[in-house]
Model the fold of this input.
Amino acid sequence: MSLPAALLAVGHGREQPPRCSGEVAQNGDAAADGENAYYWHGLNAAWHTAIRAANDNFNVVEHAMRKAGLNTAVQFLASGQSYILGEVECGLHGDLGINGARAAPAQYSRFGRKTSSGHTHSPEIIDGQYVAGVTARLDQGYNKGPTSWGHAHIVQYHNDKRCLLLIAEDGRFMATGDIVFEESDIVEERQLEAA
Done:
């Protein structure tokens, strides 16, 4: 079974070009990053060209991914755009709250639908609301002190069940969540293996 592919390419920096990698990301001096500066300035130029052209729909992450050869069948979502996969709302980054309030994972439990989001960088499950962790270094330079951040992804299966895939620093992973395999799922999986 093939599922549609969508990327929610919004986050803390909105649709601005990302900072360069390495130590430079800590102080934001992109011009000093010899390895990535040319690429970063190219993305920045494309972003400013879109601003001058009053292109409100420009998404620099989509622009960069398409230039890198990403399949055109992958849909990019705008900030706040709904994307429902089965019974789960997957279009929420987690930064926009209900009625303009500051967002929090527990708030989405009043949303009326199961959600998957990631803004807090802290993997958790609250009343059918799944929050992914961060897929980056846990030390971002601006986050000081104790943290609940963790490396984790949300995996949604064809039967709408989800799990959090928790990833340890050494790359090991462990799934946790509401995965319950029905006998029909196991039979279907065995049939796929036999094919």
